[in-house]
Q: What sequence folds into this?
């Protein structure tokens, strides 16, 4: 969920999300680089977040940039959803 004075967006993705569908994620990691070079002309504070998801035969790396005036969170949160059936 995005707050009123923050801007968080996907900057780049390596891999294909479809390769993860219906498979068990064997590893999920989150790397955060506070003060990660905000875009010129944008707010005062920036955070770069890298999310990595692995299954047996594929990896997806998603890079995010969050920007704000410094008073709001700029990071990305991951929430596990259980009880969802894989697509058929």
A:
């Amino acid at each position: 969920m995005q707050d009123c004075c923050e801007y968080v967006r996907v900057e780049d993705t390596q891999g294909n999300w479809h390769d993860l569908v219906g498979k068990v994620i064997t590893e999920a990691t989150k790397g955060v680089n506070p003060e990660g070079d905000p875009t010129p002309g944008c707010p005062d504070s920036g955070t770069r977040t890298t999310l990595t998801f692995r299954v047996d035969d594929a990896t997806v790396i998603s890079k995010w940039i969050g920007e704000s005036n410094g008073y709001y969170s700029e990071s990305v949160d991951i929430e596990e959803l259980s009880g969802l059936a894989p697509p058929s």
In short: The radius of gyration is 15 Å. Residues 6-68 form one domain. The chain has no helices and four strands. The chain has one domain: 6-68.
